[in-house]
Design goal:
The chain is an all-alpha fold and 254 residues long. Helices cover 73% and strands 0% of the residues. The chain has eleven helices and no strands.
Length: 254
Amino acid sequence: MQPSPHRRLVLVLSILGVVASFATLPVAFALHGGMAGLPPWPVLIAGMALQALVVFALAAHLGLRSAEHVGLPGAPLLAALASGRPAPLADARLDRAVMVGLGVGLLVVAVDGVLFRGVLPPSAAIFGEVALWKRLLAGLLYGGLAEEILLRLFLVSALVYLLACGWREGARAGTVPVVIAIAVAAIVFGLGHLPATAALAPLTPAIVLRALLLNGLVGVVCGFIYVRRGLEAAMIAHAAAHLPLQIAPMLFLP
């Protein structure tokens, strides 16, 4: 029996999440001195793959179902391919997503330089010493793929579903539930970066505010792109934002 299009789509998104999770390893090893204190490679890889597969499968399944119930786009391009239909590329406007992503990335760099210059201690400079390709790999894949599956497809969709009472027949996403969901997901996105920041520098109120504001800008933009154009456009925008962010690493740390 062939798996349903929904199951195929969940599988594709889960695999993307696993691949994106592995993309963080080069940066992690560079910052923490390689494999010291970690389990052997086969155990590490198997453990990461299993954990990521479960997490992203659940996030994809619940996010897609929530989006379907309240009329959010979900992942329209991948859903079409999973169903054997042509992907509606024109509707996704991926070229605009790239430009918006680059724009918000540059905006974050500018805001960081104006409002938060000198907030990070010298110890945080170690992040800028990590090879550019490692930072780009993590930013483009984990940021662009994994974080969008977790924060936009799952969290935004689930919050809209709850706020719009999506279990009721005919419930649809209204403006207020969508705006609240995007804002909450953006805050969670910012808070989610604090553990990585804490590994580089002690957390202060200014550093916490910086993480919330700068990451929140990206989160809000990607949230609105998601609800209008779908997951793929949000992924493209988020990945594009990491180009200026990683090229100017001392202005925007994880």
